[in-house]
Amino acid sequence: MCTANKTQPCILLTNDDGVTSPGILLLAKKFASCDWNVVVVAPDTNQSACSHRLTMTSDLYVKELRNLGENVYSVSGSPADCVSVALDPKGLLQSKNLVPTLTISGINLGPNTSHDVLHSGTFAGARHAAFYGVPSIATSLASSDMREENISTAVEATFQLCSKLLTFLPKYPRNYQRPVSNFHRRQIKESLTEDQCFDILLQSFQAGDLLVNLNVPSRWNGSFLSTSLGGVFYRDVLQRASKVEENCGWKEEEIFRLVVHGGIDFVPDEQTTDVDALRRKFASITCLSTWPETHPFEIPCSVLKYALHSSKSGFPCWIEKGIDTQVLSPL
Known about the structure:
By secondary structure, the protein is α/β, with parallel strands linked by helices. It has helices at residues 22-32, 79-87, 92-95, 116-119, 121-131, 148-168, 194-207, 274-279, 301-304, 317-328; strands spanning 8-14, 38-43, 62-64, 72-75, 98-109, 136-141, 210-216, 224-227, 231-234, 238-240, 256-258, 264-267, 283-289. Helix 2 (79-87) packs parallel to helix 5 (121-131), helix 6 crosses helix 10 (317-328) and helix 7 crosses helix 10 (317-328).
């Protein structure tokens, strides 16, 4: 890892819709207009629903696309591949003497709610950056209406959230590329105060162990809500594409496609979920552990539940605490 005095901070952008998607390009333009160094490293083709796939059996081709703007690169792989190309010690940012203050994956064109996060390439891009110890968020326009005005709405909500995060994030992540000295099992006391849990969530986000998943409705009411994942189940997702006669059985060769326009069942929940928030035209902020259960770096549910505590502004209380702490004691 390069030392801070030889590098410049930047914001890394990736996605799964592809490098030419208006979601990522409009977001890059927004941050660049605020004098941030922005680096876009995104797939050369649409990689939606590829989850955390890594390309292990073929080479990755990286191209600079100057026609799309400064520091825009395409990669012949998945979002996770793109992040590796950017953040690895032999990667793109190292060669440009840049260190990412924050990674943003998106803006995805379509929602990433409920268990969508398990197969979302957008969410995987953020999670892979967090594996490198970089604070990361995933962001999505939760709508099928892809008009530029709706994408611009998601850009504005994403910018508002990230502006808050950037007020307290160190410009050079303290856990970048995860130094071996930081390899130890997370120790959590059994009895913690609310304030102590907020501290753990804040520190976990800065270390890349907590992820933020943002979903923005097209008709956003301008407010945010801290949410849990909603429960949904997609039915009738397999559609027969090959032409067959009525009552015809299975043929030797069939053509099918997967669709999400069949029936969708929603699990009733007393908690405020991402699905519920979007119905009410709020932007939903869901905080999730980067690591699976039983992993040494996981955030236990006893602490993670405090990410549902909202401030008056609708942002998670731990984010507001990070801002207050920065005001009182600059990093």
